[in-house]
Amino acid sequence: MNDAIYPGSFDPMTLGHFDVIKRASKMFDSLTVSVLDNKAKNALFSVEERVNILREATKDLPNVTVDSFSGLLVDYAREKNIHISVRGLRAITDFEYELQIAQTNRLLSKGMLDTVFLTTSLEYAYLSSSGVKEMASFGGDISPCVPDFVAKLVYEKYKNI
Ligand code: PNS
């Protein structure tokens, strides 16, 4: 089986993430989108909320499942018997960071976990979860950046902060 993982923080999932999910789901037999449970990061959405958002967004993609993980990606991938990690590359500024993660994962997994990069579609190249959160926190329009149901959830969060 040709299975892949798409790991990330997804706080929250943007249309850029969704674009990568849709395209990767066509390339692999199965795609597991997995939210990193990183206690060190101060996230806007809980892991459960982020998983629910991704499940709602991907409900019509039959070969996509959504999960969460903590600890090292290589350990999680080994447990799942998956050997490919998918990551989106927006711009050259992402490259250093992504190269570091990809090389570290190859080293830690002794070559058992490789990374496939998908370049983000141009219309989403400027998008980031942190940008979405900043815009929403100042009342900016995030409707071009996230699905409508996600925009509502983001604005609700800032109403209560
Ligand atoms: O969406 P993000 O925050 O850019 O995703 C980063 C992620 C989750 C892919 C990366 O931080 C990760 O895999 N963390 C798990 C810990 C790990 O395996 N570290 C070693 C590789 S740097």
In a nutshell, what does this entry contain?
This protein is α/β, with parallel strands linked by helices and 161 residues long.
What is the CA–CA distance across the termini?
A: 45 Å
Order of helices and strands: EHEHEHEHEHH
Number of helices: 6
The helix fraction, in percent, is 40-55%
Structural class: alpha/beta
Report the sheet with the most strands, covering strand number, pairing sense and barrel closure. 3 strands, parallel
Low-confidence stretches: none
The bound ligands are: 4'-phosphopantetheine
- Walk across the major sheet and give the strand order: 1-2-3
Per DSSP, what share of the residues sits in E-state strands of 2 or more residues? 15-25%
Average the pLDDT over all residues and give the rounded result.
Answer: 96
Per DSSP E runs of 2 or more residues, the count of β-strands stands at 5
The global form is: globular
Query: Compute the gyration radius: what is it?
Result: 15 Å
Describe this protein with a few key phrases.
single chain; about 160 residues; alpha/beta; three-stranded parallel β-sheet; two-stranded parallel ribbon; about 20% strand; binds 4'-phosphopantetheine
Give a topology summary:
Layout: E1 3-8, H1 15-27, E2 30-36, H2 47-57, E3 64-69, H3 73-80, E4 84-89, H4 92-108, E5 114-119, H5 129-137, H6 148-159
Parallel strand pairs: 1-2, 2-3, 4-5
Bound molecules: 4'-phosphopantetheine.
